[in-house]
Structures are given as C-alpha cells and as structure tokens.
Amino acid sequence: MTTVVLVHGAFADSASWAPVTRLLLDAGHDVRVPPVPNRSLSGDAEYVRRFVEQLGGPVLLVGHSYGGAVITVAGVADNVVGLVYVAGYALQEGESLGQLQGGFPDSDLAANLVYEPYTLPDGTDGTDVSVRIDAFPAVFAAGVDPRTAEVLAVSQRPLSALAFGETATAQAWASKPSWGLVSVEDRTINPDVERFGYRRAEMTKVVEVDGAPHLVMHQNPQAVVDLITEALAGTGS
C-alpha cells in the first residue's frame, strides 16, 4: 500500500491537515503527517526525504503552501511515486520562494508578517517569520470556522526567514507525476503563483476550488482528498 505523507507549510503545523487526515484514515489509507522544522528549505527537505525513505514502501507526497517547496526537493527520494500540491509552491531548481512569489505580488501576506529574532545553536542570529495573530483569520484562514481560526492563529509554527531566499536544489516534478490544487480565494499566496508553477510543471491534473482560502484543507477537505485519491489511482496505488 502506498503511504500518503502530508507535509504542512509555514505558519502551520501537522494539525493543519487534521480534517484531511481524518477522511483519509476513514477511507483506509496509510497516512503519515510529520512535523516539519520550518528552519530552512534544504534542511526541511532533507528531513522529509529521510522520513520518507525510512518508510520503505511507495509514498505519495502531498505538500501545502511552503510544504510544496519542500516536497519539490524531497520528492527525488526513490520511493516517492508522485506529488500533490495543495495551494503550494512548485519551485523550479535554482528558484527561491521569494523569486516565485515576487513575480505575482498581489497577496495580503507581506503586509501582515511579524519578524522576531532568535539565536541559533551555533550562536549566530536568525529571524522567525509569522503572521500577525489578529490578521491570521482573514489572511491565512478565511472561510475557516472563526473559533478554529483563532486556535490556529495562536499555535502557528513560524518559518525562518532563511527559507524565503534559499533556492531549490531539485525539481522532483520533472521526474515524478504531479497534481495541483488552486485555492481560488487564496489571500496568502496569489493563486496565479500556484497556477504558474503547476502549468510550468505540466502537472497531470490541476483543479481549482472556487471560494477556497489558503487553508482549503479545513474549508473543503473533501476536495483535497478527492485529488489525493485520484493521484493514488494515477500512480497505480
């Protein structure tokens, strides 16, 4: 059986996948949802790649948002049979999040980020980036139950600023079949960023979910599960 590995993005953690995880488990799928460190693109991709390789059997990698960039690099693992991007960044090798996002600047995210310094284990300084708690429900979780959005806002996992400028060292979609979901009402990532990356990758199928916010996994988990199910069928799983 193919294992579905769900990779969360920035400003979120594994719980962001909870509605989709529940539906997949109910349908009898083998699912894993690893906690991504959100420290650097290369480090996060290496972590996910090793996690996937330790599973041994075939894996379908599913990445949301920044998680799309992570699976783009980690997906070169030999046992990855396919990739699914959910409102995600489908980077090209040598391209950074900032470069791809910069070509389509019309999102509400940049004006609502908070930067906080922290010290790395080696004594050097770093910067954590998160979404303003008061802006989180509208920018990141529009369409999600307000009480749930409040919980997500205060439990978000920051992303190191390093990750925005680090370039992808691989593009797994060039050698693995891929599928993409566009959140049409996304206010975190311009939906055209998603469309551009998916089109460039020549994905097997791209679906657009009308009215979907960035956290489409909460607002319309069934649409996400339907695409994952189709990808599993497309990889012979």
From TrEMBL:
GO terms for MF: catalytic activity
Superkingdom assignment: Bacteria
Leader peptide range in chain numbering: none
InterPro entries hit by this protein: AB_hydrolase_1 (IPR000073), AB_hydrolase_fold (IPR029058), Sec-Metab_Biosynth_Hydrolase (IPR052897)
Domain AB hydrolase-1: 4-226
A Pfam family assignment: Abhydrolase_6
PANTHER family given in the database record: AB HYDROLASE-1 DOMAIN-CONTAINING PROTEIN-RELATED (PTHR37017), ESTERASE_LIPASE_THIOESTERASE DOMAIN-CONTAINING PROTEIN (PTHR37017:SF11)
The protein, known as: Pimeloyl-ACP methyl ester carboxylesterase
